[in-house]
Design goal:
With 523 residues, the protein is of the alpha+beta class. It is built from 15 helices and 27 strands. Helix content is 27%, strand content 23%. The chain is globular.
Length: 523
């Protein structure tokens, strides 16, 4: 999962020359200046407990450090914690210490009590998107000013990886108490930059935080995040210098950028997936008990199977993404250590005749009509059009509804949809790609899927440390999930980030985040 820098006309996996000059991340930089980062959507809530989007995680990377992080190899490393956690022999007690020199952006000191407050809030806050991944947490206490002890309901193998993402973000207790539900508009964490302002749909502004424990390594004065959904517009702004970094660049624009001597490309494999979510039981919203939905898709798995069989993943990759992504048929990233043992992730071929047969067997009237909600980006519009054309041949009539991304999340979370293009940026541990989405009443199970066998396999996968046995569990789980056809996995992106040549210190790893802590302008 190495971050790589790529020069003109190449997508190779090591740093190369751009315009005749070595483009290495360790070039000397000057202090000062403002960096503008273009995102492909407007982030959702800037509250680590409630947030769900990759673009939001990118903003958090500038202002909300975690107990742990990942390095360029994908290994978990300490960030606010001082060392990797220590686990008792029975796997049910975990201890760690936190930094003694850290302050929140509001000036208050980081201590063990703040960690406990944040962890319990992540677990218990109504609507928390972290609830499922912290469900095994039975209790958390401060055993000293900087020492934390966690007690678990059962051994929990993914815990370190969980604490290396939003569940490990520690929020200022003073700010939580002062702002309550309005914390999203006044976030306060430990980070190289602090929140200054947000103008919805236009910009999020962070400024250098003098309270940061490692402030001497932070070069920029300010970072501005701007939502620009159209990749070609992001590229035009990069060329003009109005922005300095373009996040989640599309393959079409990546190809164009490779001929630009003033630009550099960073890429890394993705830990996540993109697909289509189908509403099979979400009648009352996230976290609520699933119920019956009177649509052909929801009533009969054969109809959903027919919909999937009508789709050609390889053609989508070729037509929409110029062959620069990979087909995906399961939640386990090829970067995962257990991936070789998960044979169920192999993709089936498109089979229109079988799709028609399944619809006839299900006894549904054709064409089967459904609405597919898609984000308002040109790329997702092309994905929708290709799916619309492919599934029409099998007996489906798909209406596309482009929807602003934050609104799309709200509507699908509430159950107001038939189908939508669903994506996830991915986590180190496979449980992070599965449990919150596929477990009954999971924190992000917008599909309303409920299968006791899947729930049992998720629980077993969380407690099993042996890689061979864990791979066997996730192979069975993937087969079971794919048989439900509630989440149809389509493709796996690569993380493409384009920056201007005078930007140095940028890091892009397998989690897809744009890390700006050490970024600066070349001297």
């Amino acid at each position: 999962m190495l971050s790589t820098t790529v020069g003109c006309g190449s997508l190779q996996s090591s740093a190369t020359e751009v315009g005749g000059e070595r483009m290495a991340d360790d070039r000397p930089v000057r202090d000062g200046g403002t960096l503008t980062v273009a995102l492909n959507a407007d982030p959702d809530k800037l509250d680590p407990s409630l947030a769900q989007t990759l673009v939001g995680r990118t903003v958090f990377a500038g202002m909300c450090e975690k107990l742990y992080d990942i390095d360029q190899t994908g290994a978990v490393v300490p960030q606010l914690a001082t060392a990797l956690p220590k686990t008792s022999p029975d796997g049910r007690t975990v201890t760690f210490s936190v930094r003694e020199d850290a302050r929140f952006s509001d000036g208050t000191k980081l201590a063990a009590a703040a960690v406990v407050t944040s962890l319990l809030r992540h677990r218990d806050l109504p609507g928390s998107a972290r609830a499922t991944e912290l469900a095994p947490l039975d209790g958390a206490v401060a055993t000293g000013r900087y020492e934390v002890k966690l007690t678990l309901k059962q051994p929990y193998v993914p815990l370190s990886a969980v604490l290396a993402d939003r569940s490990g973000m520690v929020m200022s207790p003073a700010a939580l108490k002062k702002y309550g539900k309005n914390f999203t508009n006044n976030p306060s964490c430990v980070g190289p930059f602090r929140f200054e302002e947000r103008v919805g749909g236009d910009r999020i502004v962070l400024v250098k935080d003098p309270n940061y424990y490692d402030a001497e390594t932070v070069h920029l004065d300010k970072v501005v995040y701007r939502p620009i959904p159209d990749g070609s517009v992001r590229l035009a702004n990069l060329r003009s210098g109005d922005i300095q970094i373009g996040d989640q660049m599309t393959p079409v624009d990546v190809r164009s950028s490779l001929t630009e001597p003033e630009l550099q490309l960073f890429n890394s494999p993705s830990l996540g997936y993109q697909g289509i979510g189908l509403n099979v039981g979400n009648v009352k919203g996230l976290g609520e008990k699933p119920g019956p939905i009177d649509t052909p898709l929801a009533r009969d798995a054969r109809v959903r199977a027919a919909f999937e069989l009508a789709i050609d993943r390889r053609l989508i990759n070729k037509v929409v993404f110029q062959g620069m992504y990979e087909p995906a048929c399961g939640p386990i990233s090829p970067e995962s250590a257990i991936a070789p043992g998960v044979k169920a992730s192999q993709c089936p071929e498109r089979d229109v005749a079988e799709a028609k047969r399944l619809l006839k067997e299900a006894g549904v009237k054709t064409p089967v009509r459904l609405e597919l909600k898609i984000p308002t980006t040109p790329e997702q519009n092309r994905v929708g059009q290709v799916i619309q054309a492919m599934t029409k041949e099998a007996g489906f009539d798909v209406t596309l509804r482009p929807t602003e991304y934050a609104t799309l999340l709200e509507e699908t979370d509430s159950g107001d949809y038939d189908a939508y293009t669903s994506g996830w940026s991915g986590r180190l541990d496979p449980d992070g790609n599965i449990a919150s989405f596929l477990k009954t009443q999971g924190a992000m199970n917008s599909y309303g899927l409920s299968d006791p066998k899947i729930d049992d396999l998720i629980d077993r996968g969380r407690t099993e440390a042996d890689l061979t046995e864990r791979a066997r569990i996730y192979d069975e789980l993937t087969r079971r999930v794919n048989d439900q056809h509630a989440l149809i996995y389509l493709y796996r992106q690569k993380n493409y980030v384009v920056a201007r040549k005078d930007v140095a210190g940028l890091r892009v790893y397998g989690d897809g985040l744009v890390r700006v802590k050490n970024v600066g302008y070349v001297r």
